Amino acid sequence: MKVSRATFVVGALGALLVPLAAQGQKQAVIGYLSGSSGLGPRERAFRQGLHELGHDDGKTIRIEWRFAWGRDEPLAILAAELVRLKADIIVTDGTAGTRAAKSATAAIPIVMASDADPVGTGHIVSLARPGGNITGLTSIPTGLSGKRLEVLKEAIPGLTRIAVVWNPEPPHSRRAFQETQVAARGLGVRLHSLEVRGTGDYEGAFQAAARGRAGAVTVVSDAAMFTHRAQIVTLAARQRLPTMHTHSLWVQAGGLMSYGTHFPDLHRRAALYVDKILKGARPGDLPVEQPTKFELVINLNTAKTLGLTIPPALLLRADQIIE
Questions:
Q1: I need a labelling partner for 32 at 20 to 30 A (CA). Which of 2, 171, 205, 307 fits?
Q2: How many angstroms separate the CA atoms of 117 and 73, rounded?
Q3: pLDDT tier at 140 (50, 70, 90 boundaries)?
Q4: Which pLDDT belongs to residue 10?
């Protein structure tokens, strides 16, 4: 029987619309790309989320884990490797991972388990209609920077001057700084802006904060700062400056407190996107969601070293206290 070109094209397009889970009996391959250092709470939450949806690693699916161990440089190589493996979906943890995956493929669906600013970086068109082959979750909602300032002022009554250590280059950092400015005006707090563009600027920034008699510092983290968080926390301690951070890992490294997105919850929710795509959904049609769960973490050891007494009401609200 003769098959026309039009019939062939329609048939090929129809095959593309068949849910991935129904294409033969092979396990769907889920690539996981992260700059972190191996399986941790985020990855376990992602795997648990998949399990709850009926997808078990090694049974119904196969997860190919790829970690860059704290460096961005290997991500492009790892993303290309996942493409060569013909992964059905690539899940990314972090902006750098999304960027690497997007550069590696425009065909394989990409699910962002966390991305600081996917619109600002051009990874997607909009949160409501991401378009292309990328969807998932953004990790930084509007207003979170202002909330950190409120918590910091509650932790240190009488606080009137706060230094902000930030990198003006990433779009999400600029937005966070602007939100902090608005919140400061409402709280009657004076801000001291300290811009850093690399590791060589960190020490000078904290020295300037101390000279300016800042009562505390809020650190607007970017990828480089997060990687060098131990150095930054040490510099703050040297100047005896209380610090507010974006993530609990800063507090575990010795920072005073953090208020931010609960990343394991984002990864659990990323499993929902994987499930929908395996069942035939188009990534570009799935709206990108924002965080709904946040956590307050306080390091009482650091507070004691700084001679601070954290108000009991704030301690009661903390999700985690490090002693």
A1: 171
A2: 20
A3: confident
A4: 35
For residue 17 the two structure tokens come to 């619309």
Q: Which helix (H) or strand (E) holds 15?
A: helix 5-16
Q: Using pLDDT thresholds of 50, 70 and 90, give the confidence band for residue 6.
A: very low
Q: Nearest to residue 261, comparing CAs of 143, 101, 132? A: 143
Confidence of residue 222 (pLDDT cuts 50, 70, 90): confident
In this prediction the pTM is 0.84
pLDDT exceeds 90 at position 207? yes
The phi-psi region of residue 123 (left if phi > 0; otherwise alpha if psi is between -120 and 50; otherwise beta) is alpha
For residues 162 and 283, give the distance between their C-alpha atoms in angstroms, rounded to a whole number: 42
Which H/E stretch holds residue 191?
A: strand 190-195
Question: DSSP assignment, residue 289?
Answer: B
Cα–Cα dist 46/65, whole Å: 12
Dihedral in degrees, nearest 10, Cα atoms 304, 295, 99, 226: 0
Q: What are the tokens at 120?
A: 């600002």
Alpha-carbon distance of 212 to 219, in angstroms, equals: 16
The Cα 234–Cα 285 span in angstroms is: 45
Identity of residue 259: Y
Tokens of 305: 């070293």
Pairwise CA distance, residues 71 & 36, whole Å: 8
Side chain identity at residue 220, one-letter code: V
Non-local (6+) Cβ contacts of 215 within 8 A are: 156, 158, 159, 160, 161, 162, 242
Q: What is the pLDDT of residue 178?
A: 93
Section 266-282 average pLDDT: 98
